[in-house]
Each structure stands twice: as structure tokens, then as C-alpha cells.
Predict the 3D structure of the following.
Amino acid sequence: MLGMLISIIFGIVLGYFFQNDFLTKNSDTLVNAGLCLLLLFVGMDIGKNRTIFTKLSKFGKKIWLLPIGTIIGSFVGGYIASFITDMYVGEGVAISMGLGWYSLSAIELSKISAELGSLAFLTNIIREVLAILTIPFVAKYIGHLESVSIAGATSMDTLLPIINKSTSPDISIIAFFTGITLSSAVPFLVTATITFFNLA
């Protein structure tokens, strides 16, 4: 966890003081390449355990409870936050329905206003950073499944290596399933919230 925190701080310092045209233009490609490499090793770790898929099938329909619970928790969080910040309820809920997928939710909400899109981007970025810092603690002292829920949609990619390191390979499979489910739900949830609350 300390290593991850140092890496983030070091990256911020490098990005602020040592801007490079090549890195700036190709940052997305480099990040994706690094992420793919991380996921390769996570996949190898999962594949080593030949009993994982058997264990996963034992969950049955219960496996859907985690993504559904994450959506409900995020909805409630956005609803409560709208009152704390004096934001319109629909805006608070729409932002929370990004579920950590900052790029898509920010783009969709930017169509309504630049301010709302920027807030969605920042909110989901902060969620991801907090997840990076808290997943090891939550996994150790509260529960493995709870640590997956914190990550939201990013439990299938960016935060999967951290979840894998903090929990176990069978939980990583659940995290991957949860991430895929939530990522698939985000476009529908954000647009449905915009329509329901008449934000457009």
C-alpha cells in the first residue's frame, strides 16, 4: 500500500515538473500497456488455481448480489450527497451512477453542462484513489467482498491487481465478474438517470 501511495505521489511530481510531449501524447497507450501487463500476471495467478471456477459456480445466483448491492449503495450515496452539497438530487444520483467509470460518466454528463461533467470526472477519480488506499485495509479488517464493492466498475481492470493482492484468486474472479457487470450497467444507469430526472 505504501508503495502504491509513493508511486502516485511520484507520478504527480513528475507530471507537474517534468512534462514531456511524448509522454503527454502517448499517456493513454502507455497506461493501457502497463495495465494489460498487470492483468496478464493477475490472470496467471487466477489460472494457477484450478478450483476457482468450480468455487465460483457454487455461488450461483448469489454472485449477482455484489454488483446489485454496489449499485444500490452508490445510488444512496449520491442521493445523500445531493443534500449535503445542496446539489439537485438528479445530478447527485447521475454522478454516483458512474460507479467509478470516470471517462464515460464525465462525457455523458458534459452534454448537460461542463461543470457537471467535470464534477463526475473528479468524483469518480477520487473514488478510485480512495479505493486504492482503502482496499487493503477493508479486505483485511472488514471483508473481501466489501473491498470489491469499493472499486465499483474498476474492479475488472485498474483495481483488479490490488484486489488480487489483498484478497485471494477466487475473490479476483468475483471482482472481474462484478466489474464487467457494473461497466455494462453504467451507460444504461447514467442515461436512465438523466431521463428520469429530466436533466437534459
